[in-house]
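Reviewers asked in the last cycle whether our approach scales beyond single polypeptides. To address this, we selected a multi-component target totalling 737 residues and predicted its structure end to end. The input consisted of the following lines:
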Amino acid sequence: MVRVIGFLVGLLFVAVAGWSLLWGAIAFVSEPPEPTVESRFHEHPRHVSFASDGPFGRFDRAQLQRGFQVYKEVCAACHGLRHVAFRNLADLGYNEAEVRAIADQWAIEVPDIDPDTGEATTRKPLPADHFPDPYANEVAARAANNNALPPDLSLITKAREGGAPYVYSLLTGYQNPPSSLPAENRPGEGLYYNPYFANLNIAMPPPLTADGQVTFADGTNATIDQMARDVTAFLIWTAEPKLENRHRTGVATLIFLLIATLLAYMSYRNIWADMKGRKVRATGPLDPENAAKREAASGEAGIQG
Amino acid sequence: MSFPWAEEYQPKSPFMRWLDQRLPLPRLVFGAVGGGYPVPRNLNYFWNFGVLAGIALTIQLVTGIVLAMHFAPAGTLAFDSVEHIMRNVNQGWLLRYVHANGASFFFIVTYIHIFRGLYYGSYKAPREVVWFLGLVIFLLMMATAFMGYVLPWGQMSFWGAKVITGLFGAIPLVGEPIQQWLLGGFAPDNAALNRFFSLHYLLPFVIVGVVILHIWALHIPGSGNPTGVDVKTAQDTVPFHPYYTAKDGFGLGVFLIAFALVVFFAPNALGHADNYIPANPLSTPAHIVPEWYFWPFYAILRAFTVDFILPAKLWGVIAMFGSILLLFFLPWLDTSPVRSGNYRPTFKWFFWVLVADVLILGYCGGKPAEEPYVMISQIATIYYFAHFLIILPVLSTFERALPLPNSISESVLHGEAAEAAPIGTGATVPAE
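The resulting structure, written as structure tokens, was:
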């Protein structure tokens, strides 16, 4: 009975799915889907490597400091870093006094309450404060940016498909639209062509426009490519500040697990030794040694050979 | 418990004897996973995955309980509290990555465990109830995993919750009230997040309860084995401890190595980038996809694109739930007396086609709902239902099985004799 009902239900599902397939196939043949303009002009992130890549990857502290400088002087005007606190900058190699000075000299103040009057006010950030948002709220951010919302950058290298290479490619990917680009896909007012951006036209003006836009404290030549690399490395750190800890713990854990698994395998083989030893040789049933084992096993198992 | 030759528990110390007389807990453990549980001696590595699933569940419980100490289930706080765990809680990044990837690995081992059961006929008499309880665990796992993915309150959390609860909205007449009742509102918000957190904490303990029943039901007939032949004599079995504890120890090591590689070196590979963007009800992601372990079912859901008496969406929902519920009828759909696929030459082929079919469904489920993926998932959906409801019942009636070994010991110790015999002349012992 179950089988008859099951058979009928099966036929029903097959028929209904087949019906959908039929209509889908007809539509596919009569109007083959055309690749969208976005998919034709969109480019995948370019390959770029960082010191933090790979299982043994570590941050390059000098690069992170340069990247932070790019963030501070270029990105911070529009983009927040709300999950990161000034005190976290100690991870970049800054000492306590330097962190205090960075917080104290930060261009944006943090909201506070006046201790005497209780009125809303602002004060200079302390190392314990998180990076203050550049705009009071989303409406203010959109009003100042042609109705586009500059995303918070704390997690940006994890929050985009393609990760850090995508961020690097986007920063260096601004270009004039190709002449073959259809008119309706050309950047409109306040938009900029960037083939690494999903819909090709991004509201962010090119942030890195000229070599030497930032003067690096360590004397590194600040080409656009260098600045993009450095700020991307910095954003890898803001998204995953415990990355080095994770890599170190991972390598140690794997060494432990490999040894433990080897020991577990040896103890497994040891315990099963008396069982495995009776496996017949690959020479065949007429091999006298196999025949002897077979007889012994049959007798033991109580089976008439 | 299961066989007359099972070793009886002998307390080794006066304290254990004292305890055993008052609360026979040591006796229970000894009979369940100790020397008192005789297990077929010929189990292969696919029999490791039940224990691995139990370990994965334990990992999820332990890390989840600690994470709950730092998580704030409120729409305005949830996302930030997860980042707080990642940045400020001691080893919080490790806890969260283990928990998030632990869910994936729990599903990986469970899927292998289920397919093991499908190949070796583990659902057949006398283990039907073991199979049912396993399916109940699977359904509870899916509910728990879905609600857990909502908790970080990222974009995929929010929109996934919206799409999945929207499935209930496809039910005629009562659909929309049910959806609102599930969410506690018209869209996912604080009410939904709070109840999902509460249930996400509750259901794993329900799973533990059903796992205990699953193991209990297993211990009545005892474990199956790759030949599908019943245990006949004491020579067919070895005590669970130390033989299979040792083998499971090795299996656990391999599992943990694979797990550690992902947790430490690719912790976000199985997740979705959009979930690092805070939930925003006003901005729909370009492609809403569930976690990878739901992809095969998501593909079945989306395969129904044309109305046919009922709306297409309702067909998709019925088919998606039906694709799991039909597994409950498997013991009566596959009536072949031979359990193991090793001795079913035709079944074996269809089994591997099914494995490929589910992988294809999974691949299409992770892709956007565009051609050709929709057509491929429609073909794969047709095969999925046809396999269980049409092919298996017919096959099990007409298929001629290969001769079975007389006993497990024979297959292990001198199987080449039976293999050398011409097909049909070897003694065939039906599984019944």
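The longest helix of chain B spans residues 190-219. We regard this as preliminary and will revisit it once experimental data from Aim 1 are available.
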